[in-house]
């Protein structure tokens, strides 16, 4: 039954509903009820609105909500290469070409104003130079799942792996972050003279994805910067191959925390902190050694005292180096094995103690962390949407989402036939031992699990 036009209301489900919800979801997969979702609309190319344009507001927005809200994501899925009908078609949802949105919430100039709070909107493509290079014949750069042209043979693969004629602009369209320390922070004129809400004027804006690069975006016009940068480009001598798109940010200091993964014989995760005013990142821990695999991960955890790295079972072939051959992440991920447990590393971020906890949980995969917090008894809690394997990545191929040639039905019925494929919102409890220097801590407790 379609829910469009229905009256909004709270829909509460607890852990007591887990079995019922899981069964209903599997039945919906098997019955093909995913056909009801209007995925076509979500995969159509977006139009720019450089504006800003004033949006119609229904109801009232409190003045304290004033500020700028930025969002980014895929906006273009097909590029016409010439007049002959040839096109560059995006194969996976995560590789759609970037489009940035800005919502400016403007409070009334005075408390007795009759106008109320207004909302202005603008958006801009971030991929024009990427499109120009593809049309000029450059081969694709690194992506999440875009595969090379099947007509390119072995020799062509070798040449494209070492050729300089490759798309040099990165498609960075997963997150936008304001005022990231170490990177340049240019002052810009705000849209309005005074922002009285909960966010300060943005000095600089940076787009990122699951690699080592960031790209500056003008906070007002949304125009992308001329090139993509890494921390190594800032003269910091801090080089790495991969990172996660969703870093942690301390809400009090504004400091950013993330990891840099170096591929190779001994994969190394360098946990770093970016503080405004510093000339280079502060490395607070290096993680390597037995049981530390190069893996694909999309997010991390940040609690008041700790940075938490969870290495899921999405291990990369050749310790990550095969990415240089495949040029996409999904084909570089090794087949899932239940023996490859998730490895957790808890890093102290205030007192220079490095790794203070190491733990294992059953094999699985996650895209997004949800929360991380501590209690007064020294327990650390981490929440995530976790999947029992890596199959979920393939559900976001465009052919599957659009059910082209029955791809959607085929995938979801196969997905439903595998026991335990259900994702769940899970909360793990860790007991932190400040004296731990090696080995694993006590097994984490699964406090709560709800089907998603």
UniProtKB/TrEMBL annotation:
Enzyme Commission (EC) number: 1.14.99.36
Binding site for Fe cation: 246, 298, 368
Cofactor: record remark: Binds 1 Fe(2+) ion per subunit.
Signal peptide: none
Cofactor: Fe(2+)
Annotated family: Belongs to the carotenoid oxygenase family.
Protein name according to UniProt: Beta beta-carotene 15 15'-monooxygenase
Keywords attached to this entry: Iron, Metal-binding, Monooxygenase, Oxidoreductase
GO biological process, one term: carotene catabolic process
InterPro entries linked to this entry: Carotenoid_Oase
Superkingdom of the source species: Eukaryota
Gene name linked to the record: Bcmo1
GO molecular function: carotenoid dioxygenase activity; metal ion binding; monooxygenase activity
